[in-house]
Structures are given as structure tokens and as C-alpha cells.
What we know:
Shape: flat
Strand content: under 5%
Radius of gyration: 18 Å
Number of helices: 1
Order of helices and strands: H
Distance between the termini: 35 Å
Number of strands: 0
Helix content: 10-25%
Amino acid sequence: REFVQDYLIGNFEQHPKLKLLFDPQTSGGILMAVPKESLGELEISMKNRNLNYWIVGTLIKSTHGSIKIK
Length: 70
């Protein structure tokens, strides 16, 4: 909450859903898919902004309905 406090606009301290904005279950990291050919550009951009990121998987062409976890 302290991290984003300066960016919040409005007087909503008593709003019943305010806690949802800061619940770790709903305000965690962002998972995104990036084309392999764009990964290098994204990595440079993230490093230049001093942002953490992790590569957590790879999408591969496979048969319908299969999930492979390594």
C-alpha cells in the first residue's frame, strides 16, 4: 500500500472494497506472454527501469489439452 499511496487519487479510505487493492492475492505480479523474438527488447527495457522479472515458462506447440511441467 505504501508503494502506491502517492499515486492514489480520491478520498476512498472508507470504501468497502479498498482492501482488495492491497490484498496480496489480487495485487501480485503480472504474468504475461511475450513472443520469443521480443524477449531481448523486453529484458533491456525492464533492466533500464530497474524492474525485476522472471522467465517462468515457455509456450510450445503441442497436442490439444496437454500441459507439460518441467
